Each structure stands twice: as C-alpha cells, then as structure tokens.
Amino acid sequence: MSPRMDNPSLVVPGALQPLLDLTEVIGNVGVPQTTLDLVRLLVSEINGRVYTLEDIADKADKRLAKVSDWRNQTVFDDAERSALAMAEAVTLMTDPVDMAPDEVWEESAKYYNDEQLGAIVMHIGLVNFWNRVNVATRQEPAAFR
C-alpha cells in the first residue's frame, strides 16, 4: 500500500518540533537509550508499525530482534523487562480503567525513580502517538534508527 499522504508531522505546520523536543526531554532523565529503544520497538510491533532492522544490523543492539518474545528471552535484564511490561500494559490497554496494574507499576518503580518512570510512560504514549499517525496514513516501513 502506498501512503495516503505525506507524514502529518511534516504537513501540519509547527507539529514536528514539539514532538522532537519531547523526545529529547524524555531522553535526558537517565533511562538508558537501549531501554527506550526496546520499548519503542515493542510498542511499534504491538501497533503494527513496521520497522526494518537489517539496515542497522552491524550497529544495533542484537536484542531488538528478540523484543517481540521478550517474556521468553533471557537477554533482557530485570529493569528492561519491567519497562517492557509497562509498555505492553499501557499499549494494549486490556483494562482501560487500570491499564498499568499495580504489580506492573511497582515492578518498574523498583528500577526507575519517579522522573524516569514518568519519562517511560510519556515515551510509551509518544510512541503510540507516532505509531497511530503512521499506521493511519499508511507510511512506508521505516528503518529503525
């Protein structure tokens, strides 16, 4: 399928920069970039946003290819697993009233302070936003960074 339009973040005047600014803010609170990347890829996979990983195979974290099966993989540490569980819970919204159950929240709070946990939640929301815009407008698969 071809895109329905150019990416809305480029079409709507002034839309792109605030999103990039928020991405930068999220990246400056101490959550490892590798964790943010794992979260971004998992959220994107859940949402049907396709990324190509082969273009960066030599430079990328090899664990990216395993993120869709993160529960069964041993390559992720406990902090990463807690962030992935949060990403999955918030993205799937199986319980919209309590989309991040206490056990998921409490597990993440073991590894991240409030500022970092807030950044992870904002990152999940921002990735969901990007995914929905890109999927709705049928943007082409993108290279993962």
Would you summarize the structure shown here?
With 145 residues, this protein is mainly alpha-helical. Helix content is 52%, strand content 3%. Strands 1-2 form a two-stranded parallel sheet.
List key phrases describing it.
about 140 residues; mainly alpha; two-stranded parallel ribbon; 6 helices; about 5% strand
Structural account:
The chain has 145 residues and is mainly α. The protein has 6 helices and 2 strands; from the N terminus they run αααβαααβ. It has helices at 8-11, 16-26, 33-47, 78-92, 102-109, 114-136; strands at 51-52, 142-143. Strands 1-2 form a two-stranded parallel ribbon. Helix 3 runs parallel beside helix 4, helix 3 (33-47) runs parallel beside helix 6 and helix 4 packs across helix 6 (114-136).
- Please report the distance between the alpha carbons of the first and last residues: 22 Å
Mean pLDDT equals 91
For the CA atoms, what is the radius of gyration?
15 Å
List the secondary-structure elements in sequence, H or E: HHHEHHHE
User: Helix/strand/pairing class, anyone?
Assistant: mainly alpha
Global morphology: globular
Sheet with most strands: strand arrangement: 1-2
The biggest beta sheet is recorded as:
2 strands, parallel
β-strand number = 2
- Compute the number of helices: 6
pLDDT under 50 segments (min length 5)?
none
Percent of residues in beta strands: under 5%
Percent helix, as a range, is: 40-55%
